[in-house]
Design brief:
The chain is mostly helical and about 625 residues long. Helix content is about 65%, strand content about 0%. The strands form two sheets. The chain has a two-stranded antiparallel ribbon. The chain is globular, with a radius of gyration of 29 Å. The chain starts with 9 loop residues before the first helix and ends with a strand. Keywords: Cell membrane, Ion transport, Membrane, Sodium, Sodium transport, Transmembrane, Transmembrane helix, Transport. It is found in: Cell membrane. Its main location: membrane.
Length: about 625
């Protein structure tokens, strides 16, 4: 980037405002259409009338927070395109969710995921699961704060003006329209997010003279590093850590995380719910591909002068905005489109969280204790949306004071999914697991995951295990006198893929035990929960447990059972058809006779098919 400050111009602000107003208008439109929703259940689930395509896009949009837009390209820039192996984990997670959790949750028609925990285990287990979920309030605050701070550093836009406007827009259409407004707004926002990515990728390809140049630079810089099958659990990114760790992580998100379960439970039928999950895989794959290509574009431009090492930015999360202002500043409106994409990512995540927290509060805390009319419950649901919108702003304020603690929050947010995944899997798959085993498994799994994450902060894996790729500053030639400030500390937004801050090498090697890859935290929590839950249940009479069949997975619930049955029936029908054909062929020809005709012998056979003698 040159020394001249690149700031947004009027056209960028217009594009930014129009895109966000369009997003809000869609939400308000569906809020108006849904104004006659008669029950809180309709408000929180969309009346279970949503179609597969809209829900699939909403599932993808809620995943694409500003973490994805800002942090994942920086991850590829620093650690290589091996990050793309996460796509395999997406497929595994969605198949597992579709086969194991979806049939049970959809059959029960529950509004809160944690309602299942009380039905299957106990009230205490439900409350603990709910408390773990509410920890995500802090995460939602960070999702609002980080992109607002990034935009503040780029444009000078008022920081708290950005935060409050984001929370206000989300809160309004969540409170007025409920889940239906959230889902249809997500549909628009996913398009805006991809447009932001594409603006960066297409301009980068044009400036570099084609995608082949970008790939060639990435190959020379070691960024095309897919061939890494090291099983060492201390390694940050290998095929195994990304596939196994990613599969556990995303199974916990899609299988047990309230916002995702609430979405596919809102579909008009279980077929639509399954279809939404599988279409969503395509959205996730496109998102990940965009992140990887954006990261490779970053490296192609800055392979000889890394802005992070050169002190032009203070955090890897600032690298993509830095590139945007570097290559798109001369194209009025495009920088505004990109930052609108970042804000759209925040809007989708925040609105998702607000709606989910309102649903959990209503179903887990209010309805079990207070008997109210549907009209009052609906008003309370809308009031809860407003309340949690205000809380999110407060959490953003807390995030601004946290500093270096945000890495810890990121890790803890990630590891809570593992124990819950283990608990829900036990409940659905193991009828002998009782309430004592379930609760003990959840507590010990959570303790194990949090302990490992704390060790990871105290004693992270050394550089030879994380293996950050080489970044050069030899080609840097910055002029002085720039008023453009990129070095205001930008906190790393909480992410399952957040970069671990560097530490003194001597301190690292002084510690004898190092943390496994951050992707294994969820695996450790999940497996601990399963193992402890099974052992405790067997020791406390779990084999005598009687469980309502509706709470368990039955083979007839799964898609694989019906596919296998159809194949088996097809093979059996083919065998029967073949055997019938053989029988018919044997019956069609009777034994031949050879009557003597004159002085010779003429072979004659009766043909049942032709109804006469063959000669």
């Amino acid at each position: 980037m040159s020394g001249d400050a690149h700031l947004l111009v009027a056209a960028d602000y217009v594009v930014f405002a129009v895109v966000l107003l369009l997003s809000a208008a869609v939400g308000f439109y569906y809020a108006w259409r849904s104004r006659k929703q008669g029950t809180s259940r309709d408000f929180l689930t969309g009346g279970r009338k949503l179609n597969a395509l809209a829900v699939s896009m909403s599932l993808t949009a809620s995943y694409m927070s500003s973490v994805t837009v800002l942090s994942n390209p920086a991850e590829v820039y620093r650690y290589g395109a091996i990050f793309g192996y996460l796509s395999i984990s997406y497929v595994i997670a969605v198949v597992y969710t579709s086969e194991v959790f979806l049939p049970v949750f959809y059959r029960l028609a529950i509004n809160s995921t944690y309602e299942y925990l009380e039905l299957r285990f106990s009230r205490a287990t439900r409350l603990l699961g709910m408390l773990i979920f509410f920890f995500n309030l802090l995460y939602t605050g960070l999702v609002i704060y980080a992109p607002a701070l990034a935009l503040n550093q780029v444009t000078g836009m008022n920081l708290w003006g950005g935060i409050i406007s984001t929370a206000t827009v989300c809160t309004l259409y969540c409170a007025l329209g409920g889940l239906k407004a959230v889902v249809w707004t997500d549909v628009v926002q996913i398009g805006i997010m991809f447009a932001g990515y594409m603006s960066v990728i297409i301009k980068s390809v044009i400036l570099k003279g084609g995608i082949s140049t970008i790939l060639s630079d990435a190959q020379e810089g070691g960024r095309i590093n897919f061939v890494d099958f090291d099983i060492n659990p201390l390694r940050r990114h290998t095929f195994w850590t990304l596939v196994i760790g990613g599969a556990f992580t995303w199974s916990s998100i899609y299988g047990t995380y309230q916002p995702q379960v609430q979405r596919y439970n809102s579909c008009k039928s279980i077929k639509h719910a399954r279809l939404a999950l599988f279409i969503n895989v395509l959205g996730l794959a496109c998102t990940l591909t965009s992140s990887v290509i954006s990261g490779l574009c970053l490296y192609s431009f800055y392979k000889n002068c890394d802005p992070w090492k050169a002190g032009q930015v203070s955090s890897p999360d600032q690298l993509l905005p830095y590139l945007v202002m570097d290559i798109l500043a001369d194209h009025q409106g495009l920088p505004g489109l990109f930052f609108a994409a970042v804000y759209s990512a925040s809007l989708s995540t925040v609105s998702t969280s607000i709606n989910a927290m309102a649903a959990v509060t209503m179903e887990d805390l209010i309805k079990p204790r207070i008997k109210l009319s549907e009209k009052k419950l609906l008003l309370i649901s809308k009031g809860l949306s407003v309340f949690f919108g205000i809380v999110c702003v407060a959490m953003a304020g807390l995030a601004s004071l946290m500093g270096h603690m945000m890495q810890a929050v990121s890790i803890i947010w990630g590891v809570t999914g593992g124990p819950l995944l283990g608990l829900f899997s036990l409940g659905v798959l193991c009828p002998f697991v009782n309430s004592i085993g379930g609760l003990c498994g959840l507590v010990t799994g959570l303790a194990a995951a949090v302990s490992v994450s704390i060790i990871g902060m105290i004693s992270p894996s050394p550089p030879e295990m994380t293996r950050p790729l080489f970044l050069s500053t030899e080609g840097c030639n910055f002029t002085t006198g720039s008023s453009f400030n990129w070095t205001t500390p930008l906190p790393t937004e909480p992410s399952l893929f957040t970069t671990t801050p560097g530490q003194n090498t001597d301190d690292i090697h002084a510690v004898q035990w190092h943390s496994p890859s951050y992707l294994y935290f969820c695996v450790i929590g999940g497996l601990t929960s399963v193992i402890v839950g099974i052992i405790i249940s067997l020791l406390t009479g779990g084999l005598r447990e009687t469980v309502d069949p509706r709470l368990m997975l039955m083979k007839e619930d799964t898609l694989s059972y019906h596919l296998f049955k159809r194949v088996k029936d097809g093979v059996r029908a083919e065998e029967q058809r073949y055997q019938k054909q053989q029988t018919d062929d044997r019956r069609s020809i009777l034994p031949c006779t050879f009557p003597s005709l004159g002085h010779g012998r003429n072979r004659q056979c009766w043909s049942a098919k032709q109804g006469g003698w063959n000669q």
